[in-house]
Structures are given as structure tokens and as C-alpha cells.
């Protein structure tokens, strides 16, 4: 029988065997997967672990602060935060292709972890032995959909699987690689992580970078951040957070349509709402949100987000759509 306690005991053994007494870093994204992966490694090897939070500029409003407050307070783990916004946005400049964006983001994450690992070694004035272990919260569906499973096509390169650079020097520690999200949540609860962390809706590592259809720029990210915050605020106010799996908010930066506001013509971008219900993200259905909630969200976004003059609802299940647009 599947039981979180057994999985924890088994993974702690494995992690100890793999890492020994070496130092290890873990990229923390604020999401459930990396939080639970880090907690497992912390349980296994204690303060040999340092967590690294990369602020890549593709985060939602308030995300960096939440990681600090929710996770670090609960676990007491050592956390290094790196401001990598300029690095990521420079690397993404001029790029519209979804797979290219994913590969660039995956590569820049690894570069950032490499630099962080070097800095940690220098700081510790240790004997200079490089940190070679990197923990990732890769789940089974990430592996399958990145083409790592048997007999599956490559649907999209999840940033921590198919998006890794070829010259990766880290040895990966991936204690969740055979698990589904609901199992990961059960393990997180068993490990004593706070409910705000464990029940958090999924948010992809590449962040808003794969929710802008078109080139990623700071201005577009700022627009999308406002729209996304409105949607999350209204969903929470309506008490629907637990009804949905997640609700990506997507900016169609390459599309413009004609609108009218006051006495004037507008020529702005659409925002797509993508509310989905799912058990494991392998399949999903679009969530039938109440019309009055949709109306409120639409009014607020068109009034509060400059340059957006239309809000549309994605009514596609997965398959044939994927949850994220890119
Ligand atoms: P798709 O779009 O493939 O998404 O239907 C399935 C689930 O995975 C999340 N997702 C990602 N998570 N790195 C992540 O950590 C990624 O590169 C990535 N791509 C998609 C997505 O939000 C959904 O929950």
C-alpha cells in the first residue's frame, strides 16, 4: 500500500546514500514540488543543504516574499536569493518560440545555480571542493511530457528535464521523480510543511515567460502580473481556490484587436483565462467558473490593465489543449 511515511523513509535512505557528507543546493521556486524535495533532503542531510531562490523576473506579484515567509519560516532552511532578472530577460530578448524560451530558461537556471554554488564555496572558505549535487522537484508527469518516459512524444520541455543544458556539471537529486502531485502533497503534509505551501496551486518553473505568447519583455511582464493578481484575488474572494487545479492567465502579446473606451478607439491585446480542473495535470477539463465572477474579472482587467482591451476564456480540455499555452 502506498503510504507517505514509507516513501519518506525510503527516499531519505537513498538521498543519504547518494550525497554522503557532501554539500548540496536546491532550487526553490515557491511551488509545492521544490518545497517538498527540499524538505526531504533537509530531513536526510540537514544543513549540508542550502536552498537557492532565483528571482528570474518571470514571477508573479509578491512571489519572492511568499517564499521567504511561508517556507523559510516553517523549515528554517538556509536560503540564498539571487536577483537574476536582467540575466534572464537579456537571454530571452527577441525570442518567441515556446521551446526555445523553455530551453533558454532551463539553461539560465542552471547557470545561476552554478554561480551560486561557486559563491557558497568561496564564502565558506572551505577546502574549495565544488558543490556537485543539485536537488530538483521533478515529478513523474514532467518526465513523461518532456519525452523521458517510454514511448511518449516530447510535448514540451519542462524546465528541469528537457530544458537542461547538455554540459550539465551537477549530479541531480530528484526524490520525487516517480510521484504525482497529490502524492507529493501527502508527503509534504507528513513532513509538517504548512498548508499554504502544500496546497498551493501549481505554477511552472519558467513562470510568466511561457504565459506571454510572443516575445517576453519587462513591460509585458508588468501587464501580465497585474492581470494575474486580479484573477487570483477574485478567485480567492469567491472561495474557489480549492475547486480549481490552477488558472493560468495568458497575455497574447502577438495579437491585437480593436476596442472602444470612452469616445476612443483602442487597439490592444487580449488576456486569456485558463481555469482548469485536474487530478494530476496529465489530463484536465476547463472549469465552469460562475459567470458573475468572469464578468467581474473581465471588467477589472480591461479597466485596470493598460493596453488590454479584451478578456477571453479558454474552454479547451487537455487533450487536445495543454494547460499552459506554451
Ligand atoms: P501542461 O502545460 O504540460 O502543464 O499541460 C502540466 C502542468 O505542469 C506545469 N508545467 C511546468 N511546471 N516546469 C514546471 O515546473 C515547467 O517547465 C512546466 N511546464 C508546465 C503546468 O503549470 C501544469 O500544472
From TrEMBL:
Single GO MF annotation: ATP binding
Enzyme Commission number, as recorded: 6.3.5.2
One GO CC annotation: cytosol
Root EC class: ligase
UniProt key word Iron-sulfur: no
Domain GMPS ATP-PPase, chain residue ranges per copy: 2-200
Keyword set, alphabetical order: ATP-binding, Glutamine amidotransferase, GMP biosynthesis, Ligase, Nucleotide-binding, Purine biosynthesis
Source organism, top-level taxon: Bacteria
Annotated binding of ATP, by residue: 29-35
Pathway, per record: Purine metabolism; GMP biosynthesis; GMP from XMP (L-Gln route): step 1/1
Catalyzed reaction equations: XMP + L-glutamine + ATP + H2O = GMP + L-glutamate + AMP + diphosphate + 2 H(+)
Task of the protein: Catalyzes the synthesis of GMP from XMP.
Subunit structure: Homodimer.
Entry protein name: GMP synthase [glutamine-hydrolyzing]
Organism: Amnibacterium flavum
